[in-house]
Design a protein that fits this description.
The structure holds two protein chains of two kinds.
Chain A lengths: L1 E8 L2 E8 L4 H8 L18 E4 L2 E4 L12 E3 L1 H4 L7 H8 L9 H14 L5 H7 L11 H15 L2
Parallel strand pairs in A: 1-5
Antiparallel strand pairs in A: 1-2, 3-4, 3-5
Helix pairs in contact in A: 3-6
Chain B lengths: L3 E3 L4 H11 L3 E4 L5 H6 L7 E4 L9 E4 L2 E5 L4 H6 L7 H7 L5 H4 L4 H7 L5 H8 L3 E6 L2 E6 H4 E3 L2 E2 L6 E8 L4 E7 L10 E10 L2 E10 L6 E2 L1 H7 L4 H8 L15 H21 L13
Parallel strand pairs in B: 1-3, 2-3
Antiparallel strand pairs in B: 4-5, 5-10, 6-7, 6-10, 8-9, 11-12, 12-13, 13-14
Helix pairs in contact in B: 4-7, 10-11
The chains are: A alpha+beta, B alpha+beta.
């Protein structure tokens, strides 16, 4: 059996026929080509599948697609691209926070959810917010600096 | 076999679905544990009932001597709620569950029903003498949390019942929570201790001690509670630190010996932390009306 669902993906209303047991990360990648989100661990630990659900950072591998009917989903594709680079993405570039890049969509979206809620996070608050997003390259220092830089650029007048 | 998906928007609708499907249904309440089981095909229910959209179950309120935490309230909603700031131990416990993205959707009620061995919030809730509200087609019943957890993955919830709320008694106690883990985030702790203490002029009037990550499910350390009662708290804690509680029966694991060695110290530290909250001889939730 499958079920037709409708939701808002990156500011556009979309619909899809999905299995009742399908997880959101599969739907977003396979039905909608949102390959910026990665399927890392598929157990909610690594953070590479992070998306925004009504503005909050969540794990798309732990959410059944049928449960997001009528809700807003933002993926990294909805935040910015090469021609319209989002200030958080620019801060990651400028701080040299990206190495292999696998974790970065999740990092940027988690930072977006944090900065929307808290314009001026402390370094500790950034580290707590990013504590569920694993990076095996950078050692986190430059990622934390990138979020601080984004906060300064976006909210300091 | 095909699976039907339901997203009820009120409690009665959810209960009537449970009445219809019983054991053949799976309740998804946050889903951070159970969705993995479903997506990997280890659970193949006839119906999935997602209850996150039942708004009334997200409410956290103060009524009849209890803080009532709705069955679908997420850890994030609990952390943001001013009523729960009067239960420092509970905030200490739930702010260490998984990671922020997990706390955004995971629920205390869901973790209670999963009945895993090492749940932070559930261990602290037991240390607060929490009561769960189970609602079924024929009405509601209340059950102490300690009687709700029967074994790993096993609870006293009947197949047609929904855990609609967790009640934290507003008592004359101060609470505290400590966990011992290898990492600061995303680690299932090796030892969890939740306590609440009532003190009067340095004498322990009442104590509740709950231990997690040891047995199949969190358990109360009644023997230590008895030992503390009516004794000066510093003397009581010193004695507790010398004793391995008889209720703790750590499961076979590579960490068993380690857990056995650190447990008495961890219990002592948690008790001290709760005792320190008695600086003004007032329980922190006494300012609640």
């Amino acid at each position: 059996m499958s079920r037709k669902i409708q939701f808002c993906l990156n500011d556009r209303i979309v619909s899809a026929e999905v299995e009742e047991t399908e997880i959101l990360s599969d739907t977003l990648r396979n039905h909608f080509g949102m390959i910026g989100l990665k399927e890392g661990c598929k157990t909610g630990d690594c953070g590479t599948c992070t998306v925004l659900l009504n503005g909050n950072a969540v794990r798309s591998c732990l959410i059944l697609t049928c449960s997001i009917e009528g809700k807003n989903i933002t993926t990294i594709e909805g935040l910015g691209d090469a021609r319209h680079v989002h200030p958080i993405q620019q801060a990651f570039i400028d701080a040299g926070a990206v190495q292999c890049g696998f974790c970065i969509p999740g990092m940027v979206l988690t930072a977006k959810a944090l900065l929307d809620r808290n314009h001026y996070p402390s370094e500790e608050e950034i580290r707590v917010a990013l504590s569920g997003n694993l990076c095996r390259c950078t050692g986190y220092e430059k990622i934390v600096k990138a979020v601080l830089l984004a906060s300064q650029r976006m909210y300091t007048k | 076999m095909s699976t039907a998906f339901y997203r009820p928007t009120d409690t009665l609708e959810a209960i009537s679905l449970l009445g219809r499907f019983g054991k053949r249904a799976i309740i998804v309440n946050g889903g951070t544990d159970i969705v993995i089981e479903i997506s990997k095909g280890r659970l193949t229910p006839e119906a999935i009932i997602s209850i996150s959209d039942i708004q009334e179950l997200h409410e956290i309120s103060h009524q009849n001597g209890y803080i009532r935490i709705g069955g679908s309230a997420t850890y994030y909603e609990m952390m943001e709620n001013p009523l729960l700031n009067h239960f420092s131990g509970m905030i200490e416990a739930i702010s260490q569950v998984g990671s922020p993205a997990i706390r955004q959707v995971a629920t205390l009620a869901g973790n209670i029903c999963t009945a895993a061995p090492a749940p932070d919030g559930c261990t602290m809730a037991m240390g607060l003498d929490a009561v769960v509200v189970l609602a079924g087609p024929s009405g509601e019943r209340l059950l102490p949390l300690s009687q709700m957890l029967l074994g790993r993955g096993k609870t006293a919830r009947e197949e047609h019942e929904l855990l609609t709320a967790i009640l934290l008694p507003i008592s004359k106690k101060n609470c505290a929570y400590l966990r011992l883990a290898r990492r600061r985030a995303q680690d299932i702790a090796k030892v969890m201790v939740g306590v609440s203490l009532e003190l009067q002029d340095g004498v322990c009037k009442d104590a509740v001690i709950s231990l997690g990550a040891l047995n199949a499910v969190p358990c109360r350390a009644y023997s230590l509670e008895k030992l503390l009662k009516n004794n000066r708290i510093e003397e009581g804690i010193a004695r507790v630190e010398e004793i391995f509680p008889q209720e703790a029966k750590p499961r076979p694991s590579p960490f068993r010996e380690y857990k056995e060695q650190v447990l008495p110290t961890m219990i002592g530290r948690t008790l001290r932390k709760a005792a320190e909250r008695w600086g003004t001889n007032e329980p922190e939730n006494s300012i609640l009306p």
